[in-house]
Amino acid sequence: MLDMAKALIRAAFAGTATALLCAIALPAFAGTLESVNQRGVVQCGVSEGLYGFSERNSQGEWSGFDVDFCRAVAGAIFDDPSKVTFVPLSASERFDALRTSRVDLLSRNSTWTLEREAGLDLAFAGITYHDGQGFMVIRDLNVTSALELDRARVCVESGTTSQLNVADFFAANSMTFEERAFPSGAAALEAFQSDHCNVLTRDQSALYAERLKLARPADAVILPDIISKEPLGPVTRADDFRWFNIVKWVNFALVNAEELGISSANAGEAAGSNRPDVRRFAGVEGGFGKLLGLEDAWALRAVGAVGNYSEIYERNLGVKSRLGIPRGLNQLWNMGGVLYAPPLR
Question: Which among 63, 78, 284, 293 could bridge 279 via Cys, Cβ 3.0 to 4.6 Å?
Answer without folding.
Answer: 284
